[in-house]
Amino acid sequence: MTRADAPVTPPVVLTIAGSDSGGGAGIQADLKTIEACGGFGTSAITSITAQNTTGVQSQHLLPIEEIEAQIEAVTEDFDVAAVKTGMLATSEVIELVVDHAAELSNLVVDPVMVAASGDRLLAAEAEDAYRSLIAEATVVTPNADEAAVLTDRDIDDPEAAERAGRDLVEMGADSALVKGGHVPGDAVVDTLVTDDDVTTFRHDRIDTEATHGSGCTLSSAIATRLAQDDDLPTAVGSGIDLLASAVRYNLDVGEGPGAVHHLVQTRNDAARRSTIEAVERAVSAFVDADVSVLVPDRGMTVAGATPYAETPDSVAAVEGRIARTMDGVRPNRGVRFGASTAVARALLAAREYDPEIRFAVDCRLTGAVEDALASLDGAVASYDPGERPDAVSDDATARWGVDRAFGTSEETPVAVVGREGVGVSGCVLLLAATADDLISRVETVHGAVDEA
Questions:
Q1: 161, 183 in Cβ contact below 8 A?
Q2: Hey, how many other C-beta atoms are within 10 angstroms of the C-beta on 12?
Q3: Cα separation of 261 and 33, whole Å?
Q4: Where are the domains of the chain?
Q5: Torsion of CA 384, 388, 392, 398, to 10 degrees
């Protein structure tokens, strides 16, 4: 039988940039990100670089007529919905893009000047030429160093970034996103400036040097979201969220600092089904073993996080918890994402210290259970809920407690004990990297309690 085809029509995004033989930045990063964000990536390569995670060894600029031929080949055949530029290298290439700007919609200009390794990727004479390209941009996305070159300002705080953004808009850009990664501070503040508004995006700084490809990834994500008709703040916010995860869960490849994880959200989404199945497997094991003695009066929550979970909606748990019955234990309902609150927050708090942790279960705290924790192969940490600051709500107690326990433990604990305080029930949170490890730890504690 001949099957009917089922074509799909993703928006086409064109990247005009250099090739990175190391795969972390440039055209390679752009195409990965465009695909991950739901677009179809096309390219016009401006320059070929020999580089890896330690630096740029050499670069070769393609003939200008070959660069133009690539742009024309793409635009003549495809309905290009957005364009992003990266490494343009010389004023001649920049002027070529300007000449084609009238036919390029949703133009995102990433003014690449220096690689993350510190190697220069733009001829000094080309800096002035960028101003004509900026005038054609839907959004220009310089980091603080690039914005300083373009605007002749020192950018050392968000207020200076806003002023630089206004300068770039005055040059003709519809908007400017001045990135805060190179600005000192515990938080990274990215500043989006338009004629009418200023929007700031704030997220915690990640303690890593593996930021290779970050600018390429962000600009490609923004271009792809614009190609899908997102409004500008939504497109920028979505790109920044992607990059924050891509930097935290970076790719440890090569001898130098690694690259950002361009497909982090795609991989995370792909793991949702297997995460639910792992939680269901743990629930079945606990039902079969009848772990009634470990089930708190309010019920037991079994939770599992996707590999790159950052929020509770990426944590799967038993809806309504596991309850004790006359015949043993049973789950009240099925497993779904977002079903847990306190345990999900506690699990995410543990992942801040050790991202390998993906599974957790809360157990009742009795003297026998606490004694049984000594049978576990790993550290046991504790906190006193009675010491909880007034500013921490009841709902946030578990997360505060995990922070407190991990902060005082010399190694990743396999169990966190919250001893009973005034008005607060005690609990034990068992943690594991895999569902099988979690099942084993529950079985170990359960067996030790039975033997006591």
A1: yes
A2: 21
A3: 9
A4: 12-269, 271-451
A5: 0
| pLDDT above 70 for 114 | no
Asked if residues 260 and 251 have their Cβ atoms less than 8 Å apart, the reply is yes
The residues near 242 (Cβ < 8 Å, ≥ 6 apart) are 33, 36, 37, 217, 218, 221, 264, 265
Judged by DSSP in three states, 183 sits in: coil
What are the start-end ranges of the H helices in 171-292?
214-227, 232-248, 264-270, 272-289
**β-strands 175-178, 322-325 pairing:** unpaired
Collapsing DSSP to helix, strand or coil, 84 comes out as strand
CATH of domain 271-451: 3.40.225.10
Give the mean model confidence (pLDDT) for residues 93-97: 95
pLDDT of residue 328 exceeding 90: no
Q: What is the DSSP letter of 320?
A: T
Q: How many angstroms separate the CA atoms of 329 and 156, rounded?
A: 58
d(CA 324, CA 193): 56
pLDDT at 121 over 60: no
Instruction: Give the closest residue to 28 by CA, choosing from 236, 355, 253.
Output: 253
> Which backbone phi and psi does 92 adopt, to 5 degrees?
-65, -40
What is the sign, positive or negative, of the torsion defined by CA atoms of 405, 411, 416, 419?
negative
Q: What are phi and psi of 118, to 5 degrees?
A: 100, -5
Q: 3-state class of 188 per DSSP? A: strand
∠ CA(221), CA(223), CA(227), 5° rounding?
115
Least confident of 49-63, 86-100, 118-132: 118-132
Distances (CA, A) of 364 to 134, 295, 301, 324: 61, 6, 11, 12
CATH architecture for residues 12-269: 3-Layer(aba) Sandwich (3.40)
Q: Is the pLDDT of residue 118 over 60?
A: no
Q: How far is CA 215 from CA 56, 195, 218, 430, in A?
A: 17, 23, 5, 39
Instruction: Say how far apart CA 38 and CA 389 lie, in whole Å.
Output: 45
User: Residue 1 CA to chain centroid, in angstroms?
Assistant: 44
Q: Is 209 helix (H, G, I), strand (E, B) or coil?
A: coil
CB 251 within 8 A of CB 277: no
Angle of CA points 14, 15, 19, to nearest 5°: 145
